Amino acid sequence: MVQRTVVVTGGGTGIGRASAEWFARAGDRVIIAGRREPVLREAASAIGARAVVADLSGPSGARALAEAIDGEIGVLVNNAGGNPDLQGTPAPAGLDGVRAAWQRNFDANVLTAVLATEALRERIADHGRVITIGSIAARSGAASYGAAKAAVEAWNLSLGGELGPRGITCNVVSPGLIIDTEFFNGQLSDERKEMLISQTATNRAGVPDDVAETIGWLASPGAGHITKQVIHVDGGAYAGH
Ligand SMILES: NC(=O)c1ccc[n+]([C@@H]2O[C@H](COP(=O)([O-])OP(=O)(O)OC[C@H]3O[C@@H](n4cnc5c(N)ncnc54)[C@H](OP(=O)(O)O)[C@@H]3O)[C@@H](O)[C@H]2O)c1
After folding, report:
1. Where are the beta strands (DSSP E) in the chain?
2. SS3 annotation, 20-46
3. pLDDT in tens, 141-178
4. Which domains are assigned to the chain?
5. Distance 231 CA to ligand 1 centre (A)
6. How many Å lie between the centroid of ligand 1 and the Cα of residue 161?
7. Cα(141)–Cα(145) distance, rounded to whole angstroms?
């Protein structure tokens, strides 16, 4: 197998870390990016990856990521994101609070993916892969977080059209409930967890490796004619298309 350079944003924890491990195990050169240096360095050392500390919601972080990488990129996994409403910093009251909540979800989920991709766009290898993590929330609600993930799906459609002539595929992987991540910040009650599990056909919560395996498959040569798609990894909790 040809060794590729694989960039996983948000690769220090959860789904991103499992994906980074998947590619490292497959023999690829892996670069993980995130904001918290100690978290990233610990993960990088455990995985055998390289860490780039960067806040990807702004242009300077995206530029720093691009400057830290040499050569062509075979796979870009836009995984950084989450729901800042769960992070415990209350938004201001009234319309200012509404605006702040929407802005920070857009920053965390849309701009991280768009800016990282734009910063690396010319360096993505022909026949490369751009895989962006969406969410079941894009189809099921969750206010500003769901709207931001829906925006990621729309953006992916245009990106797939732009990069398709170079043989680059662009897909969204949309998880349902995935435990063993920092996503819920300790705010997932047992009742809510059971309710979310009851919506699956598999009668279980997802784990990061469920998503990593799907990302790995989308990045494989055999998936070269799959693009502009949304692949749900949610045990059937969302059954629409
Ligand atoms: N867990 C679920 O149930 C679930 C369901 C659907 C979708 N998702 C999506 O899956 C993706 C991965 O989340 P996860 O569940 O694995 O949770 P997680 O453990 O919190 O991982 C999110 C990662 O993104 C990084 N990150 C966040 N904002 C960033 C920024 N501005 N710049 C750079 N890195 C940033 C975080 O690191 P730093 O804080 O150090 O930057 C963290 O490592 C997210 O896009 C999330 O929305 C998760």
Report:
1. 5-9, 29-34, 50-53, 73-78, 124-133, 169-175, 230-233
2. HHHHHHCCCEEEEEECCHHHHHHHHHH
3. 889 999 999 999 999 999 999 999 999 999 999 999 99
4. 5-233 (3.40.50.720)
5. 18
6. 26
7. 8
Tokens representing 186 are 């300790």
Q: How far is the CA of 78 from the centre of ligand 1 (A)?
A: 10
Check if 156 has its Cβ closer than 6 Å to any atom of ligand 1: no
192: Cα separation from own chain's centroid:
23
Asked if residue 28 lies in contact with residue 6, where contact means CB atoms within 8 angstroms, the answer is: yes
In ligand 1, which atom is closest to the CA atom of 9?
34
- Confidence at 241, pLDDT banded by 50, 70, 90: low
DSSP 8-state code for residue 178: B
CA dist., res. 201 & res. 120, Å (int): 38
